[in-house]
Amino acid sequence: MEKDKEVTVEKAIEVLNRAVKSDPDAMDKLFNHRVPCNEILAEDPTIQVRGHRTKGWSIDDTKGIVIKEESNYKVGLLGILNGIFGVDEESWGFISMIEDLACPNGCENPLEIESNKNIKPNCIKCGRQLIHKLTKFERTLSAEERAKQ
After folding, report:
1. How does pLDDT run across 60-88, given as a tens digit for each residue?
2. Do residues 45 and 29 touch, judged by C-beta distance below 8 A?
3. What is the separation of C-alpha 19 from the centre of its chain, rounded to a whole number of angstroms?
4. Burial class (CB in 10 A: 0-12, 13-18, 19+), 40
5. In degrees rounded to 5, what are phi and psi of residue 85?
6. Separation of alpha carbons 118 and 14, rounded Å
């Protein structure tokens, strides 16, 4: 098989979706796994990282008031992949992960949507809390398309 000279966002999405179709559980676990990362990675201009930095304080008997800075940054594989392809003018990555809500017990049609469009967080058949399951990848909507929604 000949190697692609240039990998495009569309080609990456095609390969990712082929992998989801081949083994949806493995891909779901892989792409929903995030690990703690440092502030240097969190500030990368194209890699997408969740979390934030917080400042707080506490009182120490020997030191008095102590200012503490903490962060809870986490990065996943999708954030790294989007870092490869860059971001749009609003810093959104070009690859989106699409997930559905599912019952962990496998109940069919576990959702009940209320009249105000809120989705109840528990399965209407067994009562278990619904989970997100990866279904596919697609190209992220452009800034213009997002503004129209």
Report:
1. 777 777 666 778 999 999 999 999 999 99
2. no
3. 17
4. exposed
5. -90, -10
6. 32
